[in-house]
Amino acid sequence: MATSNPNVNAITGYTEEHSAELISKSILGGNSARLFNLQTGVKGDQALNLMDVDVEFQDGSNCGWTESGSTEFSQRIIHPAVLKVNMAFCDKKLLKTWMQHMVKIAAGTETLPWEEKWTGDIVANVQDKLEKMIYQGASGQTNEFEGIISILDAASAETVNVSIASGTTAYAAIKAVAAKIPAAVKDPVILVSLEMYNEYMQDLVGANLYHYNPGDGANEYKLPGTSIRVIGVAGLNGASASYDYIIGANLKNLVYAVDLEGDSEKFDLWYSKDNREFRLDIEFLGGTQVALPSEVAYGKRAK
Questions:
Q1: Phi, psi angles (nearest 5°) of residue 79
Q2: What pLDDT sits at residue 22?
Q3: Do 206 and 171 form a contact (C-beta atoms < 8 A)?
Q4: 265-302 exposure pattern, b = at least 16 Cβ within 10 A, e = fewer
Q5: The dihedral sign for the CA sequence 34, 39, 44, 49
Q6: Which of 155, 150, 163 has the alpha carbon at shortest distance from 300?
């Protein structure tokens, strides 16, 4: 019997009701995305407006006015990329397999087999690829944003560059970078690949400089004799066939930019009746920048 009121009882909500949570996990769930200085509301190329003030003390026992000190304004531009993931899942391909009992064949009863597992793995995969892009993304590409390595290489005239010979231990290499971090940098950390971090930990064990501290996080251990945290990040894994990268900086100096305040991010999963398959669409904007390259100790250990 016809009715003017749509009957929605058979419509399954899938992941749409959790879209905000899922997109946040996708673009903010990686280690470096959480570590970096997060800048939201970015829609396209955006300037980081910087101000550098230098005051000078004078002899205050004399009258008169002598102007001194300086205020310098500068900019660093974030060049974000608008990225998307489009995937399809045809549940009918599971027929005649051991998974066929998961498929429901009747109009209006479509459900996605292992929906939570599938979307969870997709979120994890997006996080892994973004973690890598944050450091290794190339400039001038349409399907990725420029990463920290490319940015620091382009600003090598400003960064504090530390060249480290092949064969140098991870511990010695990290100490060399720590020694070059400008004194003006407050609360610096040192970022290395997970491979180099593991090597560093073995160096400490061999030198009897390792003592477990519950306050240290996973893949994080202070450089002995300092307050500098050494953090292993997956994004630096396999970044170059020629170098191991070591980045010493204040985390606020490393910027990860997203939108998140608007509607340009979405995580949609639906059953397409036209195509008779489940479809997934993720869309978001992301980018990185180094606010002050002059306050970064940029180490390269030759392989």
A1: -110, 85
A2: 53
A3: no
A4: bebebebeeeeeebebebbbbbbbbbbbbebbbbbbbe
A5: negative
A6: 163
Neighbours of 233 (CB within 10 A): 22
d(CA 201, CA 206): 9
pLDDT value for 3: 39
Using DSSP's 3-state secondary structure scheme, residue 126 falls into helix
Note the pLDDT tens digit of each residue in 46-77: 877 766 677 787 868 778 888 888 777 667 88
User: In whole angstroms, what is the distance from residue 182 CA to residue 164 CA?
Assistant: 18
With H, G, I as helix, E, B as strand and everything else as coil, classify residue 189: strand
Taking a C-beta distance cutoff of 8 angstroms, is the pair 290, 152 a contact? yes
Cα(38)–Cα(212) distance, integer angstroms: 30
In this prediction, residue 282 carries a pLDDT of: 83
- Take residue 33 and report the two structure tokens written for it: 């995305």
Are 152 and 296 spatial neighbours (Cβ–Cβ below 8 Å)? yes
State the Cα–Cα distance between residues 187 and 197, nearest whole angstrom. Answer: 19
Query: How many C-beta neighbours within 10 Å does residue 83 have?
Result: 20
Q: Is the pLDDT of residue 15 over 60?
A: no
Tokens representing residue 52 in the block: 């550098």
Overall pTM > 0.90: no
Q: Which regions of 79-159 does DSSP assign to beta strands (E)? A: 81-89
Nearest to 74 by CA among 188, 158, 140, 149: 158
DSSP per position, 200-244 = HHHHHHHTT-----TTS-TTEEEPTTSSPEEEEEGGGTT--SSEE
Other C-beta atoms lying within 10 Å of the C-beta of residue 87? 12
DSSP state of 69: -
- Dist CA 86 CA 18 (whole Å): 18
- CA 71/CA 80 separation, integer angstroms: 29
Is the pLDDT at 201 greater than 80? The verdict is yes
Query: 14: which 2 tokens?
Result: 């899938």
